[in-house]
Amino acid sequence: MPLLVHAENIDFKDFKLSGNPTGFQITTRVEFQLTDYLRDALTNGVVLNARIQFRLGKHSSWWFNEDTSLLTETFQLKYHALSRHYLLSKSGSSQYWNFSNLPSALRKLGELRKYLLPDISSSLGDGEYYILAAADMAPTSLGLPLRIQSLFSDQYKLTSEGVLWPLP
């Protein structure tokens, strides 16, 4: 049973891990709920960057848990004022989607179905291992006053703690 950590504006739903160390597949849905600031920024031309990260972790009874990065997916969400459409693109690929409303764009952004993780069989030894998934979203750039305010306020960015899937 995975351990779910809830953040105010990002939720992981319907998560499932299947496969073996040479090929784990993750199916999950990440729900992004934009703050008023991020929604206004998007409709006023600011590009939002979203990341969904997967890490391999090992429980430690002595000190902090160890973890290594497996994969990071990066997306960009833009609003095109002339056509009144939301444009979603996956960085590092030629995948683009066009949506007439924001909820549809956010639903597609958080949809991960049968997502294949890299081979981790060589990384596994003795101990209890898990897969950690976390997500965040932030504007591409913030002016200096907002950068300072973003240290003390969550309205300028979204960050989840993530979900842990214990490996079988």
Write a brief structural summary.
The chain is 14% helix and 50% strand. It has 3 helices and 11 strands; from the N terminus they run βββαββββαββαββ.
Notable features of this structure?
eight-stranded antiparallel beta sheet; 14% helix; elongated; disordered N terminus
Topology at a glance:
Blueprint: E1 3-5, E2 10-20, E3 23-32, H1 36-43, E4 48-58, E5 66-80, E6 85-90, E7 96-99, H2 102-109, E8 111-116, E9 129-139, H3 144-150, E10 158-159, E11 162-166
Mean pLDDT: 81
**What's the shape?**
elongated
Structural class: mainly beta
The proportion of residues forming helix, as a percent range, comes to: 10-25%
Q: Main sheet, how many strands, which sense, barrel?
A: 8 strands, antiparallel
Radius of gyration: 17 Å
* Tally of helical runs: 3
Order of helices and strands: EEEHEEEEHEEHEE
Q: Which range does the strand content fall in?
A: over 45%
Total number of beta strands: 11
* Uncertain regions spanning at least 5 consecutive residues: 1-7, 144-153
From the N-terminal CA to the C-terminal CA, the straight-line distance is 11 Å
Tally of discrete structural domains:
1
